[in-house]
Amino acid sequence: PVTGVLTCALPISMRAVLQRVTEAEVCVAGKTVGRIGPGLVVLLGVEQGDTESDAVYVAQKIANLRIFSDEEDKMNLSVQQTGGSVLMVSQFTLMGDARKGRRPGFTQAETPERADELYKKTCDLLRQMGLCVETGQFQTHMQVHLVNDGPVTLLLDSKKLF
């Protein structure tokens, strides 16, 4: 007989929320620090144990997902193909665990130093792919203003099992 509780370890994963937009900006203390026209707003969360391979996976997905309309109004084009831009915003709250109680826990979020490193790596990879990338300011209170186009919003998880 099996006794005790059977547990399943969740995989470590970088998470990104992608929103297709017609325009967006991020402000800090009332000043615009990043602004784009058509493209993607990406909220990026880094979990403990994430590596550069997670950044590569997420950057490739951001650049190549075919979520923009072609001439027949079908989602067949990527942000690269449309010449769109990316507004990347660090969002540690994507690592929040709200399964218990009424206050989310953030123990799985990566340390600020390592999270910033992987956030910048992801931005650099997108720039290397030819995309214009604007950013928010890491570890500050930001206000993100956007016009969601569609709306089209997707969640990426670098190690989702299914």
Walk me through what this model shows.
With 162 residues, the chain is of the alpha/beta class. The protein has helices at residues 52-64, 79-82, 112-128, and strands at residues 15-28, 31-36, 39-45, 68-69, 75-77, 85-90, 132-135, 143-157. Helix 1 crosses helix 3 (112-128). The longest helix is centred in the last third of the chain and has 17 residues, at 112-128. Mean pLDDT is 91; it is low at 1-10.
Q: Which of globular, elongated, flat, extended, rod-shaped describes the shape? A: globular
Question: How big is the Rg?
Answer: 17 Å
Rounded to the nearest angstrom, the distance between the terminal CA atoms is: 30 Å
Order of helices and strands: EEEHEEHEHEE
Largest sheet: 6 strands, mixed
Rounded average pLDDT: 91
Got a strand count?
8
Structural class: alpha/beta
Strand content: 35-45%
Fraction of residues in helices?
10-25%
What ranges have pLDDT less than 50 throughout 5 or more consecutive residues? 1-10
Total helices: the number is 3
